[in-house]
From TrEMBL:
Keywords: Metal-binding, Nucleus, Transferase, Ubl conjugation pathway, Zinc, Zinc-finger. One of its GO terms (molecular function) is zinc ion binding. This is G2/M-phase specific E3 ubiquitin protein ligase. It comes from the Eukaryota. Gene3D superfamilies: Zinc/RING finger domain, C3HC4 (zinc finger). It is found in: Nucleus. CDD domains: ePHD_PHF7_G2E3_like. It comes from Pundamilia nyererei. Pathway: Protein modification; protein ubiquitination.
Length: 699
């Protein structure tokens, strides 16, 4: 039908399609709300109204369609009936490029297909592909290009274009245009922000510039009536196998035997006190499912604070933010990076008295630490107090770090440890406990970790980001490493197939037992095998280890500044060896023949002692010995000055064992006195006693 006479006929008959774009699609996120006025036989998309060149909002909000008068809309339809669409070549184009010299006109849906950018702000201009705004890479930042959309998680080509946009703040969140438009439609003005960095102001400004419509309303999930009503419901049902209540399992008295008490962990199971044989004053109860999930430790041994920390990690890992004070144990983190010491120091204010006492028997530091974190009343925010004969907290933390490195959860050479898969350690939850002890040691001023491999650090903190692992990152001298190495070193296709046939069980376990038709396919096979060995099969140990490191917010702090902490967790600089330490010292023998005979075997004792320090058979590490003898724990700092010397302390000499002459004021005169003893055990005992009593004070 025609709206008036004497005007050009509009080739459009009302059939539910939009009067401006002639499209019947009803997708509010892509085209805006579709409004129909039956009395005027008129339907129109909201975005078509906003972007049309010849129609303006001349009425009030309640007049016409969102303030656009019906007559103005009909007039725009008649005007655009003479204009040809640049995309579909049909009449009715009402959206034009805002550049005056450009004559391209399109229907709004065709404009999306032709990569027109319509800005939903100001005068609502539109731009053709030749004149539309674009984004560019930030070359000044050292970031890796993403490979998936941060909203839908589907793969993307990391090339900025009309269909691929990025966040202007973090530059690491990339997404499809359609995905971010649907997110904006769902989140609204108050909740629309970057999914990774959570930036709102700059992000919204950039998205408006790039043609994303942000509705000025609350989020869609907030507008739904009674959307969170179920959260206000309290579980009140007895789930005991035999309910003894005469009023039924759904009855809950206000107090007494037949009051329903809920599981304190999950809250989704309940019981009458009488039905589960509980005491009349029992308020703390856990259901069977939670008891089994925690190996029966729920009732008496599980720490509420540890459970809250675990819940907090799982909630945050799922991408939610929980503003609940009872779970908010994470400290406020600094906005700017500094040294590792400064960043760890920011976590110290969490610590508060009273102190918790660590009982150390002999040199069993790891055993004492495990007893501490497994206590039912363990609170990581309490300060530490070490109770042991002639042991300080500093010495305890050093010994603890050394024994952690040698425990069953790690494998590999010194200074480059990977996580080991140990079923008994999983049953005992040792991965969590060791991670917790490492976090406690760092916050309480313990020594750097220093023994993580680069591969383990990357698996935990994704640094360097998205860098593929290779066979060199696998633990040396293991069965899996030997098999992957043989596959890597195969020189022909026939040899490769023979190696794969021998290793078929390993390939089957890794899901890589597939036919290989050329050597070019070997690279992908090796990459899959390395990923399986280091990451896939180690997922549970890695998860529990991360959760342990979450104690006192250490994991979050490291994840914020992974480059700063890399030297704390991984070995940095020269690796100390017994040979290198021995080469630092010049041995000065006595001129008297009697003393010389006694001093000669002591040199053998000294070299053997260095070897035991290197392999961990002594309570003293090479770093402790170097610091005690020279005042520095760094090999480079010691080698920069003149060589240190060694003399011998005979029993009649009135000097304390291990005395160092020239300490402090003259770094060139490092002089270590070795005790002259008749047996190695006496020598070792004297050295360990001297260094443990005095070494910690010369940091």
């Amino acid at each position: 039908s025609q709206w008036s006479t004497g005007r050009p006929a509009v080739p459009w008959v009302y059939s539910g399609s939009c009067a401006l774009c002639r499209c019947s699609d009803d997708d509010p996120a892509m085209f805006g709300e579709k409004v129909t006025l039956k009395e005027h036989k008129l339907s129109v998309h909201y975005f078509c109204l906003l972007t049309s060149c010849g129609v303006y909002q001349r009425g009030e909000e309640d007049e016409g369609i969102f303030g656009f008068l019906v007559e103005d809309i009909k007039q725009e339809a008649r005007r655009s009936a003479r204009l040809t669409c640049f995309g579909c070549k049909k009449k009715g184009a009402c959206v034009g490029c805002n550049v005056r010299s450009c004559r391209k006109m399109v229907h709004f849906p065709c404009g999306r297909k032709q990569m027109f950018v319509s800005q939903f702000t100001g005068l609502f201009p539109s731009y053709c592909p030749d004149h539309s705004p674009s984004q560019s890479l930030c070359t000044g930042l050292d970031i890796s290009l993403p490979r998936s959309c941060s909203i839908c998680l589907d793969s993307i080509d990391p090339v900025l274009s009309y269909s691929i946009l990025k966040c202007p703040s973090c530059h690491t969140s990339w997404f499809h245009r359609d995905c971010v438009q649907r997110q904006a439609h769902s989140a609204g003005l108050f909740f629309f922000r970057c999914t990774l960095c959570n930036n709102k102001e700059n992000f919204q400004e950039e998205m408006l510039r790039m043609g994303i419509y942000i509705p000025e309303r609350d989020a869609s999930w907030e507008l739904e009536a009674n959307a969170y009503a179920e959260l206000l419901e309290v579980y009140k049902r007895c789930d005991a196998l035999t309910c003894l209540c005469n009023n039924g399992c759904t009855h809950s008295a206000k107090s007494g035997w037949f009051e329903v008490i809920r599981c304190r962990l999950c809250g989704s199971r309940g019981t009458h006190r009488k039905c589960s044989g509980l005491k009349l004053d029992t308020k703390d109860w856990a259901c069977t499912d939670c008891t089994q999930a925690t190996d029966g430790k729920v009732h008496s041994s599980i720490s509420c604070k540890r459970y809250k920390l675990t819940c907090q990690y799982l909630i945050e890992d799922a991408g939610f933010v929980l503003n609940c004070h009872s779970l908010s144990l994470r400290p406020s983190l600094p906005e700017r990076s500094g040294s590792p010491e400064e960043l760890l120091q920011s976590l110290v204010p969490q610590l508060h008295p009273p102190s918790v006492q660590v009982e150390v028997i002999g040199d069993q530091a790891l055993s004492a630490g495990l007893d501490l974190v497994r206590r039912a009343d363990f609170d990581p925010t309490q300060t530490l107090s070490v109770r042991s004969v002639a042991k300080t907290k500093e010495y305890f933390l050093k010994l603890l770090m050394q024994q952690i490195q040698e425990c069953v959860v790690f494998e590999g050479p010194d200074g480059s440890k990977n996580l080991a898969l140990d079923s008994e350690a999983l049953r005992e939850d040792l991965y969590f406990d060791v991670g917790c002890l490492l976090a406690l040691s760092l916050v309480h001023g313990g020594p750097p970790v220093g023994f993580f491999s680069r591969a383990l650090y990357q698996c935990l903190f994704n640094y360097p980001a998205n860098r593929p692992l290779n066979v060199t990152h696998m633990t040396p001298d293991t069965h899996f490493t030997h098999q992957v190495t043989r596959i890597t070193e195969a020189e022909s296709l026939e040899e490769l197939k023979e190696v794969m046939a021998v290793s078929w069980e390993y390939l089957e376990l890794a899901g890589c037992n597939r036919p290989i038709s050329s050597l070019k396919e070997r690279e992908a096979l090796v990459e899959d095998l390395v990923s399986f060995t280091i990451i896939t099969r180690m997922q549970l140990p890695l998860q529990r280890f991360r959760e342990g490191l979450q104690t006192l917010g250490v994991f979050d702090q490291v994840q914020l500044f992974p480059s700063v902490f890399c030297g704390v967790f991984c070995e940095a600089g020269d690796h100390l060896t017994a040979q290198k330490i021995g080469q630092l010292f010049t041995i000065n023998f006595s001129e008297q023949e009697v003393k010389l005979k006694r001093e000669t075997p002591v040199v053998t004792f000294w070299r053997h002692f260095l070897l035991e320090c290197e392999v961990g058979r002594s309570s003293i590490s090479l770093q402790d010995l170097l610091r005690f003898a020279t005042g520095s724990a760094k090999l480079l700092a010691v080698s920069a000055v003149s060589s240190s010397s060694i003399s011998f302390l005979h029993p009649l000499t009135p000097s304390p064992l291990g005395f160092k002459e020239g300490r402090g004021s003259e770094p060139e005169s490092k002089h270590l006195l070795l005790p002259v003893t008749s047996s190695y055990q006496a020598f070792k005992s004297s050295m360990e006693q001297a260094i443990s009593h005095h070494g910690v004070y010369f940091d």
